[in-house]
Amino acid sequence: AVPLPLSAGVWRDGVALGRRVLWLHTFGARCGESPDARPKLPGGRRPYVRAALPGPHALPAEPLYDPEERALLLGEGRIAPVPPAAWRFGAS
After folding, report:
1. Are 51 and 83 contained in the same domain?
2. pTM
3. pLDDT by residue (tens digit) across 64-85?
4. What b/e sequence results for 54-77 when a residue is b if at least 16 CB atoms lie within 10 Å of its CB, and e otherwise?
C-alpha cells in the first residue's frame, strides 16, 4: 500500500518535488525545462564558443585562461567571456 495525503496541497507539493528531482537526475531530459533551473546571464556576458573546440582526443591536458581576453582556452578552442571568478572557482 502506498500512503496518499489527504490534503490536495500536500499532494501538489509532492508532485512538484518529484518532477524537480526527476528533472535534476535526468539533467533536464525529462519533465521539461524548469523556469528556475538554468540561470541566464544578460547578453554580452554569456560565454560562447568563439573558436571551435578540438575533438576529445585533441584536448589539452589542462585548460588555460587568458585574463585580458577573459577567455578559456582549450587547445585551438576558445570560450569567452569567462569571468575571472569562474576561472578561480573551485569545489572541495
Report:
1. yes
2. 0.55
3. 999 999 999 999 999 999 999 9
4. eeeeeeeeeeeeeeeebbbbbeeb
**Same domain, yes or no, for 45 and 79?**
yes
Number of domains in the chain: 2
Burial class (CB in 10 A: 0-12, 13-18, 19+), 2: exposed
Q: What's at 21, amino acid-wise?
A: V
CB atoms within 10 A of CB 50: 13
- Phi, psi at residue 50, to the nearest 5°? -95, -25
The CA angle 81-86-88, to the nearest 5 degrees, is 125
